[in-house]
Design goal:
about 70% helix, about 200 residues, 8 helices, mainly alpha, globular
């Protein structure tokens, strides 16, 4: 059987739709992780309301980065969470062992350096992820501390919102739970600071 280009596109689209359906089903019926994830999901949604309102940037990632630059002073309250977040394997751009994108890799490496975290963290990464990551180039950009932190956290948010961080495999599930717990603490500090000022 020979597939036409249109047929291949339809199969890919149906595969993506099925992935989305599976994600929805997991959120609706598998409550083991949903409560933890819901806390971060809600707080990011509230933060999203704020940065969308105060920014004129066209792309969401640019609104997030702008927020980080404008709120650099918040970083002092978040150093412990930042150390925890960048002291482990980089946040990938998708499920399981996907490597980080170039911006997240750059933000992570720069933040590790600014926080004095040993550069050998990469040695503790899963080998297949580390191999993929070696091919990811960094970008020519100097992140501020808060800007780097919020960019990494935005990747966690993207993975969660797009359904890529709901795996049930034991190691990855534990890692995802830790990421959203850290994200929940960070967004709580940010939101409380916004309403206090």
């Amino acid at each position: 059987m020979i597939l036409r280009h249109e047929d291949a596109g339809e199969i890919l689209e149906n595969s993506r739709i099925q992935t989305v359906r599976n994600t929805i089903k997991q959120w609706l019926v598998y409550e083991h992780y949903s409560r933890e994830f819901e806390a971060f999901f809600l707080k990011w949604t509230l933060l999203n309301l704020y940065y969308n309102e105060v920014s004129g940037e066209k792309h969401e990632v640019d609104r997030v980065l702008e927020f980080g630059r404008k709120h650099e002073s918040l970083f002092n309250k978040l150093k412990n969470e930042a150390v925890e977040l960048v002291g482990m394997e980089c946040v990938g751009r998708g499920p399981s062992t996907e490597p980080p994108d170039s911006c997240v890799k750059t933000a992570t490496l720069q933040l590790r350096e600014k926080l004095g975290i040993n550069a050998n963290v990469c040695d503790t990464c899963r080998s297949d992820k580390r191999q993929k990551c070696q091919n990811v180039k960094t970008v020519e950009y100097e992140f501020g501390c808060m800007e780097a932190l919020i960019r990494i956290l935005y990747q966690v948010r993207c993975n969660l919102f797009h359904g890529d961080k709901t795996e049930r495999e034991q190691f990855q599930m534990g890692r995802n739970q830790l990421l959203v717990q850290i994200g929940d603490r960070i967004t709580a500090v940010i939101l409380n600071s916004l309403v206090e000022n």
